[in-house]
Amino acid sequence: MLKHLIEVTNDDMIGQVSLPPRTPYYGLPPIGMGTWAAESTTSYVARLAANHCISVIDLVTNALDVRTRRDGTHWKLFPRQGETFKLNGVSTLAMEWGHKLANLTLQPSLSKTNLASLRGILPSTRLVRNTRAWCHLCLCEMQENAVYEPLLWSMHHAVVCPEHHVPLSTICPSCKAPNTAALSQRYTLGHCTRCGSWLGISNAEGKGPPTQWEEWTTLQMKSLISVISSSENAPSISVAYDNLEILILTVGNGRMTRFAQEIDTDKSTCSMWLNRKNFPTLDYCFRISLVSGIDVGKLLCSVVSPSEIDRSTWGRDGQPQWVKRPVRRKIDWESVKKNFEEICQNNETPSPGLRRVAKRLEVDGRLLKERFPDLCGRLARRNTIFWEKRPAQRHEALKKRIRRMVIKIAKNGYRPTRRRVARALDLTSGDITDKRLQKIWRDSVAKLQASQVFC
DNA sequence: AGATATGAGGTGATTGGGGC
DNA sequence: GCCCCAATCACCTCATATCT
Questions:
Q1: How many Å apart are A75 CA and B16 C1'?
Q2: Which of A34, A43, A280, A427 has the lowest tally of Cβ within 10 angstroms?
Q3: Protein-contacted positions of strand B (CB under 7 Å)
Q4: CA atom of A417 to C1′ atom of C9, Å
Q5: A279 and A427 assigned to the same domain
Q6: Same domain, A340 and A298
């Protein structure tokens, strides 16, 4: 054998053998590609980490070279907690992570585990959820093979499981809390990130049966994800605008105003779409899809011809009805100013921040800042002073409690040890760890010994 | 009827910072 | 690690006015 190898080497064959590219990580293929149940980026990261017996955080920081702290050059690639599910959307992070993962595992289809290919076409408005959603029945079925999270579950408009027709869950059945982070240390597929419980059990969240419109939007998201995960070519903005123009002119019989009435919007809005100034949000794409009979997936990713437009079902009874946008209210700025001034003048504790005040006044904080910069400045200064003082005030209060507790324990006939005092004060660490507080405790004990309250 | 401009109102993405 | 607050930027929709 060895002799044979030497002969091969001697024959100078090594330079002619081409080895396929290698990576230190398994070439784990994403699940469900080409179907509506295509795996999401966040799910893939978790599954890749589990397959290598490392935590998600270790995989992210070491393999993907994405720093979680601001101590490296790549820290910006790490999404903040609560924004991790945006990795499944159209953000730049989604695009970059898709490329990084594809390079790491040599799986080119990973760029289709999020909606980054629709970047520049679909506005990010109300596209991806901020929290985790799942179908408990799907999770139970997945247990037999591999547990993963389809991209559809991350979508804002997907509120129903297309397979089981039940509302997607968003609250853990055990701890009753939402899951807000996909890349935390404890992120395990099918389990709660907070309490670790299995999510594949029914959870009564008080959600009623899905409405026809919710069923419709979910069906459209299903179509869109199927197209994106199976398509070879990236969707093109010019094709999407061409399709939009065909639909507007065909459905409205050549009249933009008529089309605007059909989808319940303003003609100026349609004018901007037609003039390619902006593309409709997904909400409006659903409406356009409903009145034209063209799936959202086709509208965004394929070439549509006027003959494909099917208006035969539009307008019949039982048609899903979109939720009308609320009429814009007129803000009474005089009244807002008056209430804002009152809030700034009173000495409320704890001092509310601008966001809280804005919520109380029922207006956006940014509008408050634009309209009343002086009042906002006053509020900000008051907050700064209050929150600077707060740690000192808490420290002072704790000092008093330690002194009282030392005396109380001693009076009960026990030695007021540091841990005993800490436990009596219900300190989470079970000890007095702060050096300054330790000194207070020592002084209190010394004072007691001097007065011979205890022996 | 359609195009264009503009301001108001609304929302999401992103960044920076800090408390517990 | 997780959560919250504040700020900024960018984008979208709506409503209205004006012009062709």
A1: 13
A2: A34
A3: 1-6, 8-17, 19-20
A4: 55
A5: no
A6: no
